Amino acid sequence: MVALGATLSAFWIVAANSWQQTPAGFHLMHGRAELTDFAAAVFNPSTPLRFLHAVLGSWVTAAVFVGSLSAYYLLHGRHREFARRSLRLALVFGLVSLAAEVVVGDAHTRQAARTQPEKFAAIEVLHHTQTGAPLAVVGQPLPEVLLPKLLSFMTYFDFNARVTGLDAFAPEDRPPVTATAMSFHAMLWLGLGLGVVLALGVFLWWRGRLFVSRRYLKVLLYCLPIPFVVNEVGWFTAEVGRQPWAVYHLLRTEDAFSRTVPAAHVAVSLLMFVVIYIGLLGLTLHLVRKQVLQGPGGAEDVQS
Ligand code: HEM
């Protein structure tokens, strides 16, 4: 029930965010967006892929979290049977979820090319509109490594397709390129890196070496924070890449402020949110650490 509740609330959060990215189901009346079609607004063009991508991202995070804690127990010779079972489950579930995440991420990138071409051009660091566009392996300010014609192919399945670059948009309508490109490529390469670690785990399991390879178990343990970072840079890509719009092509961020609430009040409530969330983070880390040290309920703590 809790998982269903969490997934449903995640859906509404993602649908609301997606409406800002690809607004639909409204008409403009005296400068105000008025709802005309609830279903079209909720299921706007980017909601389905964004929801699937966000949910799969949370599954990858859960799998790596369980895998890392299982590695911790095996490295410390504690709860071995429990840790073996949960590590096997985490590797398989993690690898399948990540493979699906990459496929959905790829479709999500093509969807951005269709619905938010400015964001796509920034993500791919494509300054000039061209046919046979190259794929940038990493984002600026890192040195440019380009794979010829691959962006055209990955976006339109045609090596000579025309891809719109940043030069097609007025400078004031372009997202911050470095921040958008760096966050996208960090998500991409950290995500693929996690895939390599999980696949290596499955390979070691097949070779019967998984539970005794201390080096691999240490690598898996140190991977614990990575999916959290990947999800954050993913949201960075989505939000920074949507700039300068609060609602894409409807409301600029510089205009999206209240005419009645003083800036000081906004600053104070933001500060309060930051303090409350840091407190909640501290409490969560404390409770998780306590639970991990205590061990899984009922599982015998066999020292090898
Ligand atoms: C490796 C291949 C991946 C690709 C090609 C990819 C592609 C994308 C793209 C294009 C966006 C921005 C979408 C938009 O703003 O319209 C995005 C956002 C996001 N990504 Fe990824 N991603 C990948 C891997 C991952 C992984 C492994 C995770 C998590 C473990 C992840 C989590 C997220 C999240 C949470 C967002 C923000 C929500 C959204 O807009 O979908 N991504 N991703």
Query: What is the H/E string?
Result: HEEHHHHEEEHEHHHEEH
What is the terminal-to-terminal distance?
38 Å
> What can be said about the biggest beta sheet?
2 strands, antiparallel
Topology, number of strands? 8
Task: Describe it.
The chain is mainly α and 304 residues long. Among the domains are: 174 residues, no CATH class; 33 residues. It has ten helices and eight strands. The strands form four sheets. A two-stranded antiparallel sheet has the order 1-2. A two-stranded antiparallel ribbon has the order 3-6. The structure holds protoporphyrin IX containing FE. Protoporphyrin IX containing FE binds next to α3, α4, α7 and α9.
Question: Features of this protein?
Answer:
mainly alpha, single chain, 7% strand, binds protoporphyrin IX containing FE, two-stranded antiparallel sheet
Write the layout of secondary structure elements.
Layout: H1 2-21, E1 26-29, E2 32-35, H2 38-42, H3 47-75, H4 80-115, H5 117-123, E3 130-131, E4 135-136, E5 146-147, H6 150-156, E6 162-163, H7 177-206, H8 214-222, H9 226-240, E7 245-247, E8 251-252, H10 263-294
Antiparallel strand pairs: 1-2, 3-6, 4-5, 7-8
Helix pairs in contact: 1-3, 3-4, 3-8, 3-9, 4-5, 4-7, 5-7, 7-9
Bound molecules: protoporphyrin IX containing FE (HEM).
In short:
The protein is mainly α. The protein is 62% helix and 7% strand.
